[in-house]
Design goal:
With about 325 residues, the protein is α/β, with parallel strands linked by helices. It contains 12 helices and 10 strands. The strands form 2 sheets. Strands 1, 2, 3, 4, 5, 8, 9 and 10 form an 8-stranded mixed β-sheet that branches. The chain is globular, with a radius of gyration of 20 Å. The N terminus is likely disordered.
Length: about 325
């Protein structure tokens, strides 16, 4: 990262020596060294961030200290959108983030983040390994953003101060929602809620003060941000089969000697995808228990009721050519 500005008591976790100017190079024993930054909006205890820390450690070891990566979680260097913008501009080397990149760079692939559309995690994994996923990644690269490691983060659910048991219970609910078109269309147009865009770092206060009544995310997000202190119900809507990723500036990767770039890529697969995904899976039950112990009441819903209610919304997205490909092709990967 070219310049990092921290205000207030920003929380960060650094692997290596923190520098006000990352992204620079130096000399160590005659060999060139590199110092990079990795940001994330996720909490420092979130499994994708823990995987990012391990990634930085293993990269440093594998390169014999040639590459140091400083890790800054908790939106310490910007919101998720700001960090993606910095990567695209080659001002930040790495970020760990979610599917907002689809909305930013290739809205025609919006079905890859659609709520209540996918059968299970294998369904979305099959699509990501298909030509559809390849097309999305190509669009990212056109914006200097290389998805070098996928983390299968888990399933997104809902926290609320209102018990949600049927699609009708969402009507009038003020829910924090990222501005991805399919998400807004589902929760606002399809289910009758009021969607409110709030950055993750400000969401606790918004829930506490009644700006919104509900939020959604994986158990990890709901627990690490302590939403059990300001929300009554944990509603298992199972609405998004979520992946997040380690994104890197392609210009940064191209500027490195090939052997170093290969290490970054290989470690992204072995650490972020393999270790990070397993960590997300292992910790999901613990985060759910933390929410319940914090006082939240668990509510289970019939997900098919929501899916059936939303079919007209999805048919419109596909028929209006807002999304590439067809609904039939997307559903054909459910095996």
């Amino acid at each position: 990262m070219k310049k990092i500005v921290l205000t207030g008591l920003c929380l960060f976790l650094a692997v290596g020596v923190f520098s006000a100017f990352a992204g620079g190079g130096g000399e160590s024993g005659g060999a060139k060294t590199y110092e990079f930054s990795m940001g994330s909006a996720y909490d420092k205890a979130a499994p994708p961030v823990l995987a990012g820390v391990r990634y930085a450690e293993e990269v440093k070891a594998a390169t014999n200290g040639a590459i140091t990566i400083n890790v800054f979680p908790n939106s310490a260097i910007g919101t998720e959108r700001e960090q993606f913008t910095q990567v695209a501009a080659n001002e930040l080397e790495f970020t760990i983030g979610g599917m907002l990149t689809i909305d930013m760079y290739c809205a025609e692939y919006g079905f890859l983040s659609a709520p209540f559309l996918y059968k299970d995690m294998n369904h979305i994994k099959n699509i990501m390994a298909s030509p559809l996923g390849d097309g999305m990644r190509k669009k990212f690269l056109e914006n200097n953003t290389n998805l070098i490691g996928i983390v299968w983060r888990g399933i997104r659910n809902t926290s609320s101060n209102r018990a949600i048991r049927t699609p009708d219970d969402v009507k009038g609910l003020k829910i924090r929602m990222t501005e991805m078109p399919s998400w807004v269309a589902v929760w606002r147009d399809g289910l009758g809620g009021t969607t409110v865009p709030i950055v993750l770092g400000e969401l606790y206060g918004a829930l506490q003060n009644g700006v919104v009544d509900a939020s959604e995310g994986p158990y990890e997000q709901l627990a690490t941000y302590k939403f059990y202190e300001v929300q009554k119900f944990l509603v298992n809507t199972n609405h998004v089969m979520e992946w997040c990723g380690l994104y890197a500036s392609q210009k940064m990767l191209d500027s490195l000697p090939p052997e170093l770039s290969k290490i970054l890529d290989d470690k992204a697969k072995s650490v972020m995808t393999d270790y990070g995904s397993q960590l997300c899976s292992d910790k999901a039950a613990d985060f759910r228990q933390e929410l319940l112990k914090g006082g939240m009441q668990e509510v289970n819903v019939n997900v098919s009721d929501f899916t059936n209610r939303l079919l007209p919304v999805y048919e419109k997205f596909f028929s209006d050519k807002m999304w590439s490909f067809s609904l039939q092709e997307v559903m054909s990967y459910a095996k």
